[in-house]
Amino acid sequence: MSYATLPASLDELPAQARALVAGESNRIANLANVAALVFHALDDVNWVGFYLRDEVCNELVLGPFQGKPACIRIPWGRGVCGTAAATATVQRIADVHAFEGHIACDPDSRSELVIPLIDQGDVVGVFDLDSPTIDRFSERDAQVLAAVAAVLDTAVKTV
Fold first, then answer.
1. Which of 36, 54, 102, 111 has its CA 20 to 30 A from that of 79?
2. In contact, 82 and 75? CB cutoff 8 Å
3. Residues 130, 5: Cα–Cα separation, whole Å
4. 5 lies in a domain?
5. Residue 1 resides in a domain
6. pLDDT per position as a tens digit, 129-150
């Protein structure tokens, strides 16, 4: 599988992500490549990236991403990302402006999909996708992108 070739369908994303991280244990390198892959493979997204857990202050801190500059720190349990982290559940939000406590890093974002990154049962970060379109992310998107996140969960162990 060529890294220069984008997946022809959504279903190819997990395999492409697996190929990108194969043989590489550096967390930042893998997250950066997967953010770029997904950002360029999906239509109608304006931000794709990762927030990583800072255990000292129990916040999510901005990691590798594609898109406009973003919020640097998100409190655990706050906003869509913080809720996904605190509950260890996928958050698929059709209209972020209707989500109580939403943190508006980019006012152009209208819908959001956030998938917790789990390592040995602990949330170590989140995989965050934003779109300028209401209800952009389907349940199928959530399933496939969770499979992409699972590639990282098992392949990424060190910084």
1. 36
2. yes
3. 23
4. no
5. no
6. 999 999 999 999 999 999 999 9
| Consecutive H or E run containing 104 | none
Long-range Cβ pairs for the range 70-74 (8 Å, 24+): 70/105, 70/106, 71/103, 71/105, 74/103
Residue 31 lies in a domain: yes
Q: Are 106 and 68 in contact (CB under 8 A)?
A: yes
Give the Cα separation of 86 and 83 in Å (integer): 5
The Cα 96–Cα 57 span in angstroms is: 26
Q: How many domains does the chain have?
A: 1
Dist CA 126 CA 89 (whole Å): 10
Q: Identify the CATH number of the domain in which residue 146 sits.
A: 3.30.450.40
Cite the DSSP H helix spans in the chain: 13-21, 27-41, 79-87, 139-155
